[in-house]
Amino acid sequence: MVKPRYGERTLTLEDIEAMSLGAWILGTGGGGSPYVNLLNTRQLYKAGRRVRLMDPGMLADEALVAVVSTQGAPIVGQERLANPEISARPLRLMEEFLGRKFDAVMPIEVGGGNGLLPLMIAALSGLPAVDADAMGRAYPEAQMTSFSVANLQCFPLAMADIRGNEILIKRAEDWTWMERISRKICTELGSTATTCKAPRTGAEVKAHGVLYTASKAIDLGKAILAARASHSDPVAAIAEECGGKQMFAGKITDIERRTTEGFLRGRARLAGLDGDRGHEFALDFQNEYTVGSRDGQPVVMSPDLICVVDSVTGDGVATESIRYGQRVSVLALPAPEIFRTPRGQELVGPRAFGFDFDYQSVFEG
To answer: Where, by residue number, does the polypeptide cross the bilayer (predicted)?
Structure first.
């Protein structure tokens, strides 16, 4: 049983600004940029709308929760900008199919723009946003969620795009098939689509969600802002706030990036600076950073969070925006416990991304 921590609170714009900063880091390079969703939410606030953040412990067991996301390659979001009305369309489509209204909305992942997406929909719809997600970060595929680890039902799923296309997948064999089917559709829609995933009950969210992640992102953002205001090290503030470790500091010397089958894949290479001078680091990614290698040896890997941040400001550095010459710090943050289980590692460990080695956490031993 989940005991409520705070009930429900109305977020200020300062909270949302801080969450944008924190979610960008927790996105581990993916989840899409939060900037446009932040701008949209600011406009909704100017129009008198507000976001109510709901403690997951306040959810009734029978409550119906919409799980929303933008699916696709993050780099496409630099040209095809988010729109609140379009983002809410899959939710409305799902309500029509189910024949009932949702009681709340939550993100599939707290990372990046997807972390702010339910806030934007909440401000537009009046629904409360649940302080939880299903990843505790960002992952690229539908089966890489805490709900999949728990083997909950993966369907139905609703999708929409800017052209007025609306798609409902009534049934899929399993989570992997749902990923394959929806990814093919997403690719045809231009490698980006807004979605409403399989609805979850309040009981399912409380039992199998990753809880209080919106609050975590807000607190992280505020810690970075406080570090900047006091002229202290924001990278150290991130590690302290999240119990993380700094793995490397360096300059980007090379970047390979390609968009294939609705994913952004590639590798970034760094040359060490300061205490890491004379060493090299490589970051492999599939939308998100998946494995970090020092001098050719893997040292940090999914499901631990690999967070790349600007070494001066602490801003998150995404896979679609990382560029030659940037000075960055690589941090490892602990993974949610559900993904450290054998089933969790099967879904999101290094082998799930095509690597031929098992998960070794930097937080063990």
So the answer is: none
